[in-house]
């Protein structure tokens, strides 16, 4: 279609016609890109079909993919041509990019990981595809009103032309409800229609597929008892939004429906399009389940093999447990999925029957061993009327992985130690990664250019080569250039956020950034309480006049998570106070970024000096935000948790700010229940005064109710050890200030972090999965 800037301009102008508004320009550009990659997409699929190579399917309830237009321009290798061409025609690519709605198909780290994996699979030219749900609304849009989080529906499918392709030819039917005996009758069928999105490999011609399923009304007859209107509404709800409110039983049913819908649709198509006989499934297909939301794929695959393919149990089980592998993402008890047996038995009766049989056979096997009652309980899939999805996932898959070394160790030695003893060979670690293409090359072209000028461009394809930057750690001119890049990224961020922010942000201040979901264990509360203590100190001590810092926060709280919402409110109340005070304002400034998402992240990671990674040790499975910051030269201020441990191993303790209790210490305090938050408060005048302010309502603007925060710190005995770690956190902030004064050393730390970040590219993670778990072959799309 076009190969040079001039050809692009000609084609673009021809299509644009007289209608030169940016909306039309965006639509024209999008359509041209779709056409451009279409050919490679078709060819890649043909190649996969003809060569019969093993395919990976990555099933995930979330895919937080971010905007695609500019990423695809990079992948197609025409970013510069298009950017310059548009400019010469009077259009600004950045402005056009802003028109692309960000798909809200994910919540946080889990969904973003899935998106990074899609990118790496295609870039490494490996045959791997995503399977998920095409939520109409996705996750809510956050606005801060009066300091409170308010939630608005997101409409990412609005008028603008998307990247997807509806595939009516591949629609399948999903069975819900009904009676089993003597046959499965009275089924409420739901039609699953796939929408395919192209995942374009970087400067290759591999175009893989992200297949998102949409629920629609089936043409099959409805059971006599079911009202058609009710059925229509219930069906639309399946692909309406991510994580519907599950405080009531109808919400729980809906979440389970989503999981089964996604798994059944994906598996039915996988089996239908298999190039060889079904007993060869493990050689033709690998299926990775991203956390337990898709764990129902295990009994569903059994159902298909038994009931539709007519296999015997033993053979079906052997195939299933050599095809499916499982990634665990959390050890937080409340996040370990459990389903009510009755609910499963009613919604998916045959699947429940199969889970029951898996559990019965596994328990029969366990009877041959001497096990304590407690151990037996831990190993039960069905226990006390509940189906434990994590146990089902381990029993039914051939490999189980945690997402950072520390996390995998905790799984093996504590959370899943009974399962680990039964299946020691299944457990392995795959430390998470991030795609350096989006988080460095796309998000920070200025830094990309500096790196390439310094070490050449081989690192673009082999990010581990960022290591070569180690020789610039004490290079004054490199340091100066790096400083310039940081300054530019800070100014860009300021220009972007000040539109919605009243007081000006100082580009010379230290940018200290805390962006992630709001959760107790992520300890945004500790950060804001520390800022309040800085405020007090500046007011009370006329000799304390610290170097200016801007504290950025961003993140959403789950709609039903009151504590997290009150932390958001508290931040905004303290921000209003701090930002209005002329004395304090010149030393500390607080900015809350509304509706944190991938697009905001792309502007924030490159602008950061300090990366706040302060989770309660042992609670954050890996974290990936920590890696994005590191790759952009920010220094980690954090605890020894998740992948922070591996980051510090790479850069050295002297190139990070590490504080707080270790995971072993936290786990001991939890086990022996001998932590007393009240004692910690009593021993510290600073905490005493902070708590007094909090409890007296002084840190409230009268509208909010900080009872949940008080309740957590006092009545619930501070379960995330905010008070316990407070002083070491504050001390580390002082060390940050002192270090920043020595700019030579600071820039050197920053270079060191970038130089060591290559190992955290998801290309490394994906290659390890492929070598150790999936056994994929690189397929070159040459023709
Ligand atoms: C990377 C990312 C996350 C995960 O951040 P953590 O700090 O690892 O929790 C969440 N949301 C978005 C938009 C991201 O880009």
Automatic annotation (TrEMBL):
<comment type="function">
    <text>Allosteric enzyme that catalyzes the rate-limiting step in glycogen catabolism, the phosphorolytic cleavage of glycogen to produce glucose-1-phosphate, and plays a central role in maintaining cellular and organismal glucose homeostasis.</text>
</comment>
<comment type="function">
    <text>Phosphorylase is an important allosteric enzyme in carbohydrate metabolism. Enzymes from different sources differ in their regulatory mechanisms and in their natural substrates. However, all known phosphorylases share catalytic and structural properties.</text>
</comment>
<dbReference type="InterPro" id="IPR035090">
    <property type="entry name" value="Pyridoxal_P_attach_site"/>
</dbReference>
<dbReference type="InterPro" id="IPR000811">
    <property type="entry name" value="Glyco_trans_35"/>
</dbReference>
<keyword id="KW-0663">Pyridoxal phosphate</keyword>
<keyword id="KW-0328">Glycosyltransferase</keyword>
<keyword id="KW-0808">Transferase</keyword>
<keyword id="KW-0119">Carbohydrate metabolism</keyword>
<dbReference type="GO" id="GO:0004645">
    <property type="term" value="F:1,4-alpha-oligoglucan phosphorylase activity"/>
</dbReference>
<protein>
    <recommendedName>
        <fullName>Alpha-1,4 glucan phosphorylase</fullName>
        <ecNumber>2.4.1.1</ecNumber>
    </recommendedName>
</protein>
<dbReference type="Pfam" id="PF00343">
    <property type="entry name" value="Phosphorylase"/>
</dbReference>
<dbReference type="InterPro" id="IPR011833">
    <property type="entry name" value="Glycg_phsphrylas"/>
</dbReference>
<comment type="similarity">
    <text>Belongs to the glycogen phosphorylase family.</text>
</comment>
């Amino acid at each position: 279609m076009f190969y040079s800037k001039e050809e692009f301009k000609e084609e673009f102008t021809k299509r644009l016609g007289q209608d030169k508004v940016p909306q039309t320009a965006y639509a024209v550009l999008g359509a041209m890109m779709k056409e451009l990659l279409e050919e490679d997409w078709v060819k890649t699929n043909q190649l996969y079909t003809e060569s019969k190579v093993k395919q990976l399917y990555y099933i995930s309830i979330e895919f937080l993919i971010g905007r695609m237009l500019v990423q695809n321009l990079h992948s197609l290798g025409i970013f510069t041509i298009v950017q310059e061409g548009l400019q010469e025609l009077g259009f600004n690519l950045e402005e056009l990019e802003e028109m692309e709605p960000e798909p809200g198909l994910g919540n946080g780290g889990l969904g973003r990981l899935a998106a990074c994996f899609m990118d790496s699979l295609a870039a490494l030219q490996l045959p791997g595809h995503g399977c998920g749900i095409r939520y109409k609304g996705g996750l809510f849009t956050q606005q801060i009103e009066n300091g409170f989080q308010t939630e608005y529906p997101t409409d990412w499918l609005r008028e603008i032309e998307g990247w997807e392709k509806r595939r009516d030819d591949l629609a399948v039917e999903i069975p819900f409800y009904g009676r089993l005996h003597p046959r499965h009758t009275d089924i409420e069928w739901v039609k699953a229609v796939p929408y395919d999105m192209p995942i374009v490999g970087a400067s290759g011609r591999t175009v893989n597929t992200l297949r998102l399923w949409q629920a629609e009304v089936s043409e099959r007859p409805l059971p006599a008892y079911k009202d058609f209107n009710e059925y229509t509404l219930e069906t639309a709800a399946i692909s309406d939004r991510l994580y519907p409110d599950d405080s009531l039983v109808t919400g729980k049913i809906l979440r389970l429906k989503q999981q089964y819908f996604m798994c059944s649709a994906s598996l039915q198509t996988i089996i239908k399009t298999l190039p060889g006989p079904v007993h060869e499934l493990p050689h033709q297909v690998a299926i990775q389940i991203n956390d337990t939301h898709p764990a129902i794929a295990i009994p569903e695959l059994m159902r298909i093999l038994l009931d539709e393919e007519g296999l015997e149990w033993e053979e079906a089980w052997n195939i299933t447990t050599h095809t499916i592998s499982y990634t665990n993402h959390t050890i937080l008890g409340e996040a370990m999925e459990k389903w009510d047996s009755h609910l499963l038995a009613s919604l998916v009766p045959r699947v429940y029957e199969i889970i029951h049989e898996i559990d019965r056979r596994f328990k029969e096997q366990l009877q041959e061993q001497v096990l304590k009652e407690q151990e037996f309980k831990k190993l039960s899939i069905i226990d006390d009327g509940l189906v434990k999805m994590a146990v089902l996932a381990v029993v039914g898959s051939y490999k189980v992985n945690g997402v950072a070394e520390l996390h995998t160790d905790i799984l093996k030695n504590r959370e899943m130690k009974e399962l680990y003893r039964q299946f020691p060979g299944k457990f392995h670690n795959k430390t998470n990664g991030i795609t350096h293409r989006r988080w460095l090359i796309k998000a920070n072209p200025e830094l990309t250019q500096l790196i390439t000028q310094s070490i050449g461009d081989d690192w673009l394809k082999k990010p581990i080569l960022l290591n070569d930057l180690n020789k610039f750690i004490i290079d004054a001119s490199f340091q100066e250039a790096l400083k310039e890049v940081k300054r530019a990224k800070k100014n860009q961020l300021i220009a972007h956020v000040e539109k919605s922010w009243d007081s000006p942000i100082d580009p010379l201040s230290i940018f200290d950034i805390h962006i992630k979901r709001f959760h107790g264990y992520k300890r945004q509360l500790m950060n804001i309480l520390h800022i309040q203590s800085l405020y007090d100190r500046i007011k009370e001590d006329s000799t304390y006049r610290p170097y200016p810092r801007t504290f950025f926060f961003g993140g959403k709280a789950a709609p039903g998570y009151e504590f997290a919402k009150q932390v958001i409110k508290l931040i905004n109340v303290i921000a209003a106070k701090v930002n209005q005070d002329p004395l304090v304002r010149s030393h500390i400034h607080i900015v809350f970024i509304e509706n944190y998402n991938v697009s905001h992240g792309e502007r924030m990671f490159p602008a950061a000096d300090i990366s706040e990674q302060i989770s309660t040790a042992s609670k954050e499975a890996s974290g990936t935000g920590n890696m994005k910051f590191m790759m952009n030269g920010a220094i980690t201020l954090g605890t020894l948790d998740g992948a922070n441990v591996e980051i510090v191993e790479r850069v050295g303790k002297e190139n990070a700010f590490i504080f707080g209790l270790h995971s072993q210490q936290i786990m001991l305090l939890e086990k022996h229940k001998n932590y007393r938050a009240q004692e910690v408060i009593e021993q510290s005048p600073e905490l005493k005064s902070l708590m007094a302010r909090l409890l007296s309502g002084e840190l409230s603007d009268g509208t909010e109710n900080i009872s949940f925060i008080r309740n957590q710190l006092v009545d619930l005995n501070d379960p995330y050890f905010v008070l316990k770690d407070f002083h070491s956190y504050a001390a580390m902030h002082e060390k940050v200030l002192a270090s920043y004064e020595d700019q030579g050393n600071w820039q050197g730390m920053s270079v060191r972090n970038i130089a060591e970040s290559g190992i955290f590219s998801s290309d490394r993670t994906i290659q390890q999965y492929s070598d150790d778990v999936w056994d994929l072959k690189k397929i070159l799309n040459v023709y």
